[in-house]
């Protein structure tokens, strides 16, 4: 018997990893996929795995996810990207949480796959908030990137992880960082935030040290060093592009 959970996914040209995503959620009763114009095999893969496909022109990450969530019929929803996959341990945990009504939202680890394999078990993982009750959740549409649902209720953390393949190559991360840094800088500019000369000078080395030492990517060898540099450069790009927005919009 399938779990009364609605999975919602927003896509555009996600053929590379989507089959892994959809195969991992076959125990869920409903899969909602909102596509904004894929030209690859995304829709073909989605049909093969029984997803309910909806086309919607791109509105931004938060608005697109809010729309996708609104299509879900179940109270419990699972928000995944087309390059992510869950495992049987997480499915079992979801089943237990729902049966005992332990919480309104659930946070768990994200296992980044980088250059063919996960980071070291000694490197600190990110955690994400992806499983929650629909009636108590909403997305802040003022956030242009790194959007996450806000949930009015009890949140718990479980010691399980899902796999994230969006960091599988340096090229993929570079493309994402360039896109997201523009969105985040624009978000700050729209909210009236100013760039900082001190941050321009210091953000790269400080974020690198945080990622490499405090986040323990040092234990992931050369891959950890590369990823730390890329995280630092992403932080620098956000501040540099904020400066650029202000320069280009002077009276």
Automatic annotation (TrEMBL):
Pfam families: Glycos_transf_2. Residues 6-145 form the Glycosyltransferase 2-like domain. Coiled coil: none annotated. Signal peptide: none annotated. Transmembrane segments: none annotated. InterPro entries: Glyco_trans_2-like (IPR001173), Nucleotide-diphossugar_trans (IPR029044). Belongs to the glycosyltransferase 2 family. WaaE/KdtX subfamily. This is Glycosyltransferase family 2 protein. The lineage of its organism: Bacteria, Pseudomonadati, Pseudomonadota, Gammaproteobacteria, Alteromonadales.
